[in-house]
Specification:
By secondary structure, the chain is α/β, with parallel strands linked by helices. It folds into 2 domains: 178 residues, no CATH class; 149 residues, Protein-Tyrosine Phosphatase, Chain A, CATH 3.90.190. It is built from 16 helices and 5 strands. Helix 6 packs across helix 7, helix 7 runs antiparallel to helix 8 and helix 13 packs parallel to helix 15. This is Dual specificity protein phosphatase family protein.
Length: 381
Amino acid sequence: MPTPLVSDDVREPAWDRAMGVLTGAAAATALVGADPGLLARFLDPAPSPPARLAVLARTALDHRSPPPADPLDRAWTDVLRALVRTGAAPDRSPELEHAPVDDPRGASWRALVRTPVPEHAPHRGSFACTHLVDAVWTAYTASGDPAAMYTGALAGARWGLSAVPLQALRVLAGTVDPHTLVADTFALVRGPRADLWPHCSVLAAEPRRLPPFAVPHPLDPEVLLGNIDHLRARPETVDAVVSLCRTHPTDAPHLAPADWVRVWLHDNPSTNANLHFALDEAAAAVAALRAEGKRVLLHCWAGASRTPAVAARYAAAGLGAPVLPSLALLIRTVGGHLDNPSLARAVAHLSGHDLADPAAALFPDGIPPRRADLPEPRITG
C-alpha cells in the first residue's frame, strides 16, 4: 500500500504544503485577476482545462491513485508530490522543461524553478515565500491564466497555504469557501474522517472548551482580542473576524465569506514554515478590515499567545506603536503567556529587533500571571 504524503499530525509543515495545492491553484485566479469563470470550471468536474488541473492535483494528493498514463501528466504530478513531501522541487524534470511554451504543465514548472526566490529579510518586509506570487505572475506573463493556476498549485505545494496572500483568499471566498478546499485536501490525503477537523469543529467538546473571552485592543477598541468560544457564543459583537487557529464553518455561520479571514498559524515552535509572513499578513488583514469600517474579532483558540502576537504586530505596523512595549502590553491585556516565545521573537524581528530572550526583555520583573481559565501549556487548537 503506498504511503500517504503526510503524517497524521496537522502541525507538520507538510500539511501546510498539501493545503497549498488546491488553494494555491484557486487563489492564482484572484492574484492575476482572471475571469471568475475559470475558477468555476476548476471546481466543476465537467471536462475543461481548469478541471484537468483539478484532476491532476487531486491525483497527486491521493496516494491511492495510480499514476497518470500521459508522460507529461505523470511528470507534473511527480513534481507536485515531491514538493508536498519535502518542500523542494526535484533537481530536474526533462519532460516538463522541454514541454511546449503554451503547455501549462511545462510553463508552471519553468516558472517555479526559474523565478528568483526573494531574500528572506522580514525586518525589511521581504519574505522568501512571496516567491509563490512572483512565480504565478511569471507563468501568467509567459502563458496566461491556465499556466498561472498550474503554477499556483506547484508553488502552493512548495510554500504552503500559509504563503497564500490573505487578500487573495478574501477574493476567493466570494466564489468558494477556502475551508472547502482545505477539507477536500484532507479527504484526499487522509481519507474522509467526519470525526476529525476539518470536517468538524476543533476542541468543541467539554472539557476542552474555554469560557468565552474578549477584551478591547488597548490601542484600538474596535478590535476585540478573544478566543474561539467568544466567536461561537457572541457573534453579534463584531462585523468581521481574523482567526488564528483551526475553525469550521459552523463556528461562525453568520459571517459574510470575505469578512472571515482564516490564518494557518500554529502555537508551537518550529511548526510554522512562514511564521513572519503569516504574522504580518494577519496584522495587515486586521488593518484592512478596520479600514473598511468593521469591528473586528482577532482570536485564536485561547486568546493568549497567537492573538497578542498578531495584535502587537497590528499595533506596530498599523498604528505606529513601538513593538516591544506593545508586546508586553498585549500579553498583559489578555492575561496571556510566552509558552511559545518564537511568536514574540518573530513579531520583534519584523520591526528590526533581535529578541533573544523575550521573557527577560519584555518582563524584567517576571512574567505576569496568566488568566485563570487558561489550560496547561501545549493544549492548543
